[in-house]
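Students often ask why we bother encoding 3D structure as a string. The short answer is that it lets us treat folding as translation between two languages. Here is a chain of 161 residues written in the first language.
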Amino acid sequence: MAVAASAGTVLVPHRLLTTTNVTRCSALPYLPPRLSSSPFLKQQLSESRKFSLHQTRASSSEETSTSLDTNELFTDLKEKWDALENKSTVLLYGGGGLVAVWLSSILVGAINSVLLLPKIMELVGLGYTGWFVYRYLLFKSSRKELATDIDALKKKIAGTE
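And here it is in the second language, the structure alphabet:
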């Protein structure tokens, strides 16, 4: 019995830090922190700097090609606002939309705090997604049906039907 107990014991020599007198009682050996003078780290830092330069160049050339004229945007919005006849209705609908988004955010937060309900809602969402793919996207005839339903909805919203 004493032999089995001594065979299971592992002795690890204690290492002392040079700056403080702290002993480590761990089965893992002490590893010194990495120094920034290692050639591998220098190479990695220089490559990351090159990568960030490439990113900056790509984004700066993209910005110049797709920049918007803010004055044109504001004048266009001002013209559309002046063309509206019933501004109070637009403000009322906009405010109602903001309140609806705020209330739905509160509702989602409350549902998310219930213990198992978020996982059940994920399963319901996955099930509905699977049904939608099977019903509308899997076969060519059902894709055509979905396209006609979408076109009919567009016409109904636009008022051309």
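Translate back mentally: Residues 1-8, 61-66 have pLDDT under 50 and may be disordered. Keep this in mind for the problem set.
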